[in-house]
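The methods section describes the discrete structure representation at length, but only in general terms. Since the whole study asks how a given chain folds, the encoding of that fold should be made plain. An entry of this sort, consisting of the sequence and the corresponding backbone structure tokens, reads as follows:

. . .
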Amino acid sequence: MDKKLRLGQFEFSSRLFVGTGKYQTFELMRKALDESGSEVVTVAVRRERLYDKEGRSILDALDLERYTILPNTAGCYSADDAIRHANLARELLSNLGNEGASWVKLEVLGSEKTLLPDPIATLEATKVLVDDGFTVLVYTSDDPIVAKRLEDAGAASVMPAGSPIGSGQGILNPNNIRIILEELKVPVIVDAGVGTASDVTIAFELGAEGVLLNTGIASAKDPVLMARAMKAAAEAGRAAFLAGRIPKKLYAKASSPTEGMIAPSK
């Protein structure tokens, strides 16, 4: 059996983390989350995103005994803004009694057009939040040097983007992900850009400890069915990584043994 994923004080059997945004209804969201098998769901903590058009809180639609809520600072464009929203999330979840109060998925974006992370502000916010007692899971680019700096700053997990947020392009630079996996000791979770189940499988086959996605499920034609596919892909990819794939060869090699074959008559 596979070991559990450990992130700070937390342990999880499922390695698939899913978001709660972009669903047409809370009911559809609940069904998709259930099919994903995830134990962790992310919630944006900016106040305007916690409620739907009818004024209902997204937290009211989640089973807080079943899921550990991972608050994220999506939409923040400065270290100060991200730090402020992380503290708001900690206060909110502490009042609700959810154990996710002590951790945060840190996002500090550098561009509204590309939604790519600001590496300098991200590193700054990581240091502050770690010193303030947070378990920080930090969203970053696929730059191995930046990833190492974030680990050195105390991040509990580094989360390199497979491709830009919501793009559905999958993992564009697997070589950088491989380098990050070789260099870092903390769990590496691929975050952003996942479009379909094969993207999840590839991430796990590379050796990622987890995958976080939202748009790939929420914006699919059938989110519930896609959530089921993502769960199966995560399990298959992780199993394949643990099993160890055969090396790639230029030429064919017979799968049946050749020793002891009857020699052709002369």
About this structure: The first strand starts at residue 5 and ends at 7. The mean pLDDT is 90. Strands lie at 5-7, 10-12, 16-19, 40-44, 68-72, 103-106, 135-140, 157-160, 189-191, 210-213. Residues 151 and 158 are 7 Å apart (CA to CA).
